[in-house]
Automatic annotation (TrEMBL):
<protein>
    <submittedName>
        <fullName>Flavin reductase (DIM6/NTAB) family NADH-FMN oxidoreductase RutF</fullName>
    </submittedName>
</protein>
<dbReference type="GO" id="GO:0042602">
    <property type="term" value="F:riboflavin reductase (NADPH) activity"/>
</dbReference>
<dbReference type="Pfam" id="PF01613">
    <property type="entry name" value="Flavin_Reduct"/>
</dbReference>
<dbReference type="InterPro" id="IPR002563">
    <property type="entry name" value="Flavin_Rdtase-like_dom"/>
</dbReference>
<comment type="similarity">
    <text>Belongs to the non-flavoprotein flavin reductase family.</text>
</comment>
<dbReference type="InterPro" id="IPR012349">
    <property type="entry name" value="Split_barrel_FMN-bd"/>
</dbReference>
<feature type="domain" description="Flavin reductase like">
    <location>
        <begin position="29"/>
        <end position="170"/>
    </location>
</feature>
<keyword id="KW-0560">Oxidoreductase</keyword>
<dbReference type="GO" id="GO:0010181">
    <property type="term" value="F:FMN binding"/>
</dbReference>
<dbReference type="InterPro" id="IPR050268">
    <property type="entry name" value="NADH-dep_flavin_reductase"/>
</dbReference>
Length: 175
């Protein structure tokens, strides 16, 4: 990896498969801003949640989305085997919820919850929620690519929580 400057704000470099480690690739991927989600399901021992920023729309007809859980996660099996899951797009004021589900995927006590018709935990205050039926699971290297058929979607006003360059934030409004 070649660096013009080591300040993370202006770091430049290159990455080539087989010759460079994953850090430079991760830094390049970090230049793409993403929204932040928490995905919930019911596991064999109760509700499970996971923070994920690998989420995107796939198709409007049929209505499909995808997200990619890490195979290294202790919660991976619960999502890989889930018949249904709910993807919550976090609002800009939900950083604490993001961090909670990054660390504690089975702790739902004290959270403001409702339940989807499929019996999944539904988090309140999110800018959108997609209730999905599992449609397909594909190999994605150290992640799985889970495709979900959207059964219903709810959305509310507000700014999303964003992840960019290893940091969380929101939009700056400029008119």
């Amino acid at each position: 990896m070649t660096h013009a400057n080591t300040d993370p704000e202006i770091l430049t470099g290159t990455w080539t498969p087989g010759t460079d480690g994953p850090r430079a690739l991760r830094m390049a991927l970090g230049r793409y801003a993403t929204g932040v989600t928490v995905v919930t399901t019911m596991g064999p021992d109760g509700p499970v949640g996971m923070t994920a920023n690998s989420f995107t729309s796939v198709s409007l007809d049929p209505p499909l989305i995808l997200w990619c859980p890490s195979r290294a996660s202790a919660r991976f099996a619960a999502f890989e085997g889930a018949a249904h899951y709910a993807v919550h797009v976090l609002a800009s004021d939900q950083l604490a919820l993001c961090r909670h589900f990054s660390r504690h995927g089975t702790e739902f006590a004290g959270l403001d919850l409702s339940e989807t018709p499929e019996g999944l935990p539904a988090l309140s205050g999110c800018v959108a929620r997609f209730d999905c039926r599992a449609e397909a699971c594909h190999d994605g290297g150290d992640h799985a690519i889970l495709v979900g058929r959207v059964l219903r979607a709810a959305f509310h006003p507000g700014d999303p929580l964003l992840f960019w360059n290893g940091r969380y934030g929101d939009f700056l409004h400029h008119g």
